[in-house]
Write a structure and sequence with these properties.
Strand order of the largest sheet: 2-3-1-4-5
Number of helices: 7
Number of strands: 5
Structural class: alpha/beta
Low-confidence stretches: none
């Protein structure tokens, strides 16, 4: 019953990887929840959401991600609960951590422990601007580091594979090889 998370900073090729792996592994692909929620709410990007609505939006993203994953026994997801926690932390850096943050952490941790496999995609090529996500190099490096820390903090190292290849074909081979050994 594979429940695979593909994680990493923005513009590293996660969506392409998920869309390529899902049919090869006969898994349902869960697309990026934040992007889908933004579209449903009429926002072009998360930066368009009013600051006083950001926290509520992030809680809704995590709740929807958990619900979508709960509907399926097997899946591969482009971003997941772990990513929700990383982005929550990143955007809470300038604010005092709250009781809401601790509850959010516990929800993300509990859901992340349900992933059977985690594929971490580090930045191996220059980001492409798709108009939705930030591609500032320093920001992407922060998210990359915070994702690695969250994997460690959540105790998920033993079920995490870090991509080495930059080409899609190389990545697909790497992942299928790793999955066949786990």
């Amino acid at each position: 019953m594979p429940r695979i998370l593909v994680t990493g900073s923005g513009s590293v090729g996660k969506t392409t990887l998920v869309n390529s792996l899902a049919p090869e592994l006969s898994l349902h692909a869960i697309d990026e929840t934040a992007r889908a929620l933004c579209a449903r709410l009429g926002y072009a990007q998360m930066g368009d959401i009013a600051e006083n609505e950001q926290e509520h939006f992030k809680i809704k993203v995590l709740s929807e991600q958990i619900a979508r994953e709960g509907e399926l026994e097997n899946f591969i997801t482009d971003r997941g609960a772990l990513d929700c926690w990383v982005l929550w932390q990143r955007w809470q850096l300038c604010k005092a951590m709250t009781f809401t943050s601790e509850a959010y952490y516990k929800m993300a941790l509990a859901q992340s422990n349900k992933y059977t496999h985690i594929i971490f995609v580090p930045p191996l090529f220059a980001p492409i601007d798709d108009g939705f996500r930030w591609i500032d190099k320093d920001y992407l490096n922060q998210i990359d580091r915070m994702t690695k820390l969250a994997i460690y903090d959540f105790g998920l190292q033993n079920r995490t594979y870090t991509i080495q290849e930059s080409s899609l074909e190389g990545r697909l081979w790497e992942i299928k090889n790793w999955l066949s050994k786990t």
